């Protein structure tokens, strides 16, 4: 079977999601999930019928939440499908390229490689900002430029003026894809108002993080109507199951939005608690984070990750040397994690 697979797939190293990595414990802070397990009710009727391709109530509800027109919204199986749709719709295999700026989310490269699209890499600066000069010199054959803000795993925001400059330099050449998976934790940093000025802007969103619906697999792409219509040409006929549309619409109701905003405030308080506690420890650097996670640097990040893993505290190792990404859980989980790290550092001091 391996020999029958496409050459790109034979050589492909799959994305190691938190669930693929696994683990065994009682504190799970490795997947940037929400600790809130909210209850929803659906009657599971109409399952003998196919779903709408783009359920109207869901589209209208998210458009109202995001502050755009319904024609500017496409819903998909998580933001991950949005990434794949954009690459499939705009990149010719073996001709075009995407550009992304590590350290950042790994699925941009995996999706492109799976389809046979070249990957151009322009690393972030030491301050984890866009290297605009290098991006400009690497735009040949690039159709999509992926930018994550707040960035995963670093947690920082990309400068607004740099995003605008990137949009200007790529006009009529490439689409800038802003991954705003964590924007609900800092909505003032969204680029959504730039859609009116830049037809080459697409924005990825999700219900997995602030809305506590990672298991639902519901995401959105925001863009101008012409771009959305192109994506509708390549999306699956029935991408959103009926129960998914029902539950997502409940999450976007006035009551659902009020609950989400309350929970975001709670998680932000826990993030501040964890950041303050870790910052007091010798040899620990905690980077400012704007999502529901923190990037933390230790004297030996791999050893700290493994020690926590062995104790049943499952964190996420990072491609950044000696850094570990810690999702923000409930207060009890944050206290257990902080206590473990504090005691571990005291033991080896």
From TrEMBL:
One of its GO terms (biological process) is L-histidine biosynthetic process. Its cofactor is pyridoxal 5'-phosphate. PROSITE patterns: AA_TRANSFER_CLASS_2 (PS00599). It is an enzyme of class 2 (transferase). Transmembrane segments: none annotated. Residues 41-339 form the Aminotransferase class I/classII large domain. The modification N6-(pyridoxal phosphate)lysine is found at residue 209. It catalyses: L-histidinol phosphate + 2-oxoglutarate = 3-(imidazol-4-yl)-2-oxopropyl phosphate + L-glutamate. Belongs to the class-II pyridoxal-phosphate-dependent aminotransferase family. Histidinol-phosphate aminotransferase subfamily. Homodimer. This is Histidinol-phosphate aminotransferase. It comes from Vibrio casei. The gene is hisC.
């Amino acid at each position: 079977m391996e020999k029958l697979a496409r050459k790109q797939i034979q050589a492909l190293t799959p994305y190691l999601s938190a669930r693929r990595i696994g683990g065994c414990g009682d504190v799970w802070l490795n997947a940037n999930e929400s600790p809130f397990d909210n209850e929803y009710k659906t009657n599971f009727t109409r399952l003998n019928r196919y779903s709408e391709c783009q359920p109207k109530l869901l589209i209208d509800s998210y458009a109202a939440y995001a502050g755009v027109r319904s024609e500017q919204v496409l819903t998909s199986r998580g933001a991950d499908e949005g990434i794949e749709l954009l690459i499939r719709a705009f990149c010719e295999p073996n001709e075009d390229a995407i550009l992304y700026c590590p350290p950042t989310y790994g699925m941009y490269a995996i999706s492109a490689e799976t389809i046979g699209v070249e990957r151009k890499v322009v690393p972030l600066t030491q301050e984890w900002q866009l290297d605009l000069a290098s991006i400009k010199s690497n735009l040949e054959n690039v159709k999509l430029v992926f930018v994550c803000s707040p960035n995963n795993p670093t947690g920082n925001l990309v400068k607004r003026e740099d995003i605008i400059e990137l949009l200007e330099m790529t006009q009529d050449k490439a689409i800038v894809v802003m991954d705003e998976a964590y924007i609900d934790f800092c909505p003032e940093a969204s680029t959504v108002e730039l859609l009116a000025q830049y037809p080459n802007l697409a924005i990825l969103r999700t219900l997995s993080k602030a809305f506590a619906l990672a298991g639902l697999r519901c995401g959105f792409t925001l863009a101008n109507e012409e771009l959305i219509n192109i994506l509708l040409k390549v999306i699956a006929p029935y991408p959103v199951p009926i129960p998914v549309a029902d539950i997502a619409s409940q999450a976007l109701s006035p009551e659902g939005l009020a609950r989400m905003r309350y929970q975001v405030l709670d998680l932000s308080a826990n993030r501040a608690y964890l950041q303050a506690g870790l910052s007091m420890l010798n040899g620990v650097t905690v980077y400012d984070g704007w999502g529901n996670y923190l990037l933390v640097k230790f004297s030996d990040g791999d050893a700290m990750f493994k020690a926590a893993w062995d104790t049943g505290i499952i964190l996420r190792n990072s491609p950044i040397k000696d850094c570990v990404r810690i999702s923000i859980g409930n207060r009890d989980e944050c206290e257990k994690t902080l206590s473990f790290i504090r005691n571990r550092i005291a033991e080896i001091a």
